[in-house]
Design a protein that fits this description.
By secondary structure, the chain is α+β, with helices and mostly antiparallel strands. Helix content is 29%, strand content 39%. The protein binds coenzyme A. Coenzyme A binds next to β4, α3 and α4.
């Protein structure tokens, strides 16, 4: 598996995974705008030339906010999410990020277990943060990341 920075040419494949994964998917233009913004850092995981996962964070003043973590349904439970996020954490650290945070749906046990394995801990709740369906978010932090 190859993990590298997301490029504009990847966005069609990324969007296909986004659309089949989330009830409220980001648009292609949201991905294109995000990857052109210098404080955003996105990665894709590639197997046999096809994108099987992606993740990204927005980093500023030593803090990083992780979003858009997804693995293609056919490729889940093969360690791809874990390895992508390990790489994201390594790269964030190299860019001077000392803590990382994210939000996750309260019912999303697979993601919560994955984040805990990576050293994130639960820090609070954002009531009814998500729509479609409405659900609370758990706020998680990993700090310090070095
Ligand atoms: C969450 C997600 C990114 C995990 O990706 P993945 O590549 O399947 O995860 P990994 O195979 O790296 O799993 C690493 C560990 O996380 C935990 N885990 C992952 N999926 C799990 C599941 N369905 N049930 C229980 N534990 C799970 C396990 O501890 C796993 O280790 P193990 O397989 O050795 O037991 C993937 O399920 C996904 O894309 N889900 C939909 C999108 C999403 O929810 N994104 C997060 C939004 S905040």
């Amino acid at each position: 598996m190859l993990i590298r920075e997301m490029k504009a040419v990847d966005v069609d494949e990324v969007y296909a995974i986004e659309k089949e994964t989330f009830s409220d998917p980001w648009s292609k233009s949201s991905f294109l705008n995000s990857i052109s913004e210098p404080n955003n850092h996105y990665l894709v995981a590639i197997i046999e030339g096809r994108i099987v996962g992606y993740c990204g964070y927005w980093g500023i003043a030593g803090e990083g906010y992780i979003y858009n973590v997804a693995v293609k349904p056919s490729h889940r439970r093969h360690g791809i999410g874990f390895r992508m996020l390990e790489e994201l954490i390594t790269q964030a650290k190299a860019r001077g990020i000392s803590s990382l945070t994210l939000e996750v749906r309260k019912s999303n046990m697979s993601a919560i277990i994955l984040y805990k394995k990576l050293g994130f801990t639960e820090a609070g709740i954002r009531k009814e943060f998500y729509t479609n369906p409405i659900e609370d978010a758990i706020i998680m932090w990993r700090e310090p990341i070095h």
